[in-house]
């Protein structure tokens, strides 16, 4: 969807802040949103993936439940990234979170939004 790519560095390990989720391919100085969800199958009562073509974003999909959103800005190259701290909670071990980027991009489509693929993040001990 409009050429956004998602990436990561570090490991999603319990009790560390060394895991970072990045994005490239967006417009410069644009609002970007990291969506974090606990499911890639349902967002409330809405099954996922959700095709956004009927909403003016052809070829774009919501791939992760929108349970938490962190806002940031892209840099001059259209890239951004955020560190994700993982608390020292043993209940999180081998748990999954799903992350996806959304960017405000008026030139991408009538909805003015573009989306990356998603990552399935499994918390390691």
Task: Describe this structure as you would to a colleague.
The protein is mainly β. It contains no helices and eleven strands. It has strands at residues 5-9, 19-24, 31-37, 42-43, 46-47, 50-51, 61-62, 68-73, 80-84, 96-104, 113-122. Strands 8-3-10-11 form a four-stranded antiparallel beta sheet, with no helix packed on it. A hairpin with an 8-residue loop joins strand 10 and strand 11 (113-122). The N and C termini lie far apart (34 Å). The mean pLDDT is 96.
Query: Helical segment tally?
Result: 0
Mean pLDDT: 96
| Element-by-element helix/strand order | EEEEEEEEEEE
The general outline is flat
The largest sheet has its strands arranged as 8-3-10-11
List low-confidence stretches. none
Largest sheet: 4 strands, antiparallel
Query: Any idea what the radius of gyration is?
Result: 15 Å
Helix percent band? under 10%
Number of DSSP strand runs = 11
Distance between the termini: 34 Å
Strand content: 35-45%
**Structural class, from helix and strand content?**
mainly beta
């Amino acid at each position: 969807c409009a050429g956004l790519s998602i990436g990561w560095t570090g490991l999603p390990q319990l009790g560390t802040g060394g895991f970072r989720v990045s994005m490239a391919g967006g417009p410069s100085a644009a609002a970007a949103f990291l969506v974090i969800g606990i499911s890639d199958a349902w967002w409330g009562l809405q099954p996922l993936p959700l095709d956004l073509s009927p909403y003016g974003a052809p070829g774009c999909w919501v791939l992760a439940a929108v349970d938490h959103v962190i806002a940031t800005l892209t840099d001059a190259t259209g890239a951004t990234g955020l560190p994700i701290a993982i608390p020292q909670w043993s209940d999180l071990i081998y748990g999954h979170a799903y992350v996806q980027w959304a960017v405000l991009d008026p030139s991408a489509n009538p909805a003015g939004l573009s989306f990356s693929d998603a990552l399935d993040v499994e918390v390691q001990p």
